[in-house]
Amino acid sequence: MNSKTQQDETREVTQQPSQAPTTTPHIVIVGGGFGGLQAAKELGKQPVQVTIIDHNNFHLFQPMLYQVATAGLSPSNISNPIRAILEKQQNTGTLMAEVTGIDLDAQQVLMGDRQTLHYDYLVLATGATSNYFGHPEWQQLAPGLKSINDALEVRRTVLSAFEAAEREPDEQKRRALLTFLLVGGGPTGVELAGAIAELVHQSLKGDFRHIDPSMTRIVLVQGPKRILPSFPNSLAQQASKKLKQAGVEIKTGEHVKEVRN
Ligand SMILES: Cc1cc2nc3c(=O)[nH]c(=O)nc-3n(C[C@H](O)[C@H](O)[C@H](O)COP(=O)(O)OP(=O)(O)OC[C@H]3O[C@@H](n4cnc5c(N)ncnc54)[C@H](O)[C@@H]3O)c2cc1C
Hints:
There is one protein chain. The protein has 261 residues and is α/β, with parallel strands linked by helices. 29% of the residues lie in helices and 22% in strands. It folds into 2 domains: 7-124, FAD/NAD(P)-binding domain (3-Layer(bba) Sandwich); 136-252, 3-Layer(bba) Sandwich (FAD/NAD(P)-binding domain), CATH 3.50.50.60. The strands form 4 sheets. A 4-stranded mixed beta sheet has the order 1-9-8-7, with no helix packed on it. Strands 6-3-2-10 form a 4-stranded parallel beta sheet, covered by helices on one side. A 3-stranded parallel beta sheet has the order 11-12-13. The longest helix is centred in the middle third of the chain and has 20 residues, at 148-167. The two termini are 32 Å apart. The structure holds flavin-adenine dinucleotide (FAD). Flavin-adenine dinucleotide is lined by residues 30-36, 53-56, 60, 62-63, 65-66, 98-99, 125-127, 145-146, 187-188.
């Protein structure tokens, strides 16, 4: 985020209703994810004025992104308008805007189009970014899975591979197109591997004439000795068993050092 510049050109956005006593504290929450929404809900019955700002006007249910990425769900299934979620909260307003900075001295949130919003208290709930574990260059080759756009990009890539394979006369190239390698056996990698397996064995069954989607190779590579290291071993074992039954190859204790396009 940038520090405030060209203050004279900024425009203050008023969020306090005209009847609200000026002593009512104004709480600005940046981010309408689980964190921001929970904070807004907790403040719903308090004697405060709340403004929630997000660069999307919808809350995204991130845990189901992998289903959008594998065409099991559409984006609208996992997005809910923030205004609809909070419509009964009379003390809460919603703004769709990109927050570009915070002026701590003036207690103002800075927004994309040089608008500002004064706050008495500020909650920053802007989420996290994907961790490429020291390989930021991999982001170009494999986008994260944090937004609808990311999920649609993965979906386009996955489905396009089957289309290209259907047209490909060369057996070896066809096999390459039908090989999916997932680096990282945490929850996202595990869920995505399982969803691709479901896609090839169920959703795409019988759809193609020159390829058999069930012959797709799905490989999950994990650096540590087991998948899902943040979960109890028994759960990881169970997930591992299910994935193998679904045809996923799991390679643990393997650190990917380089990715070439
Ligand atoms: C693929 C996937 C699967 C997951 N599965 C599970 C699961 O099964 N169980 C589980 O408990 N957790 C799961 N998680 C984790 C869970 O989704 C996150 O922990 C949770 O979404 C974090 O909530 P948050 O409010 O901190 O951030 P987010 O949900 O990321 O929300 C941040 C919000 O801030 C907004 N924002 C960011 N920057 C700005 C800005 N500059 N201006 C305006 N708005 C901004 C964003 O648009 C977003 O709406 C999963 C995550 C992913 C990605």
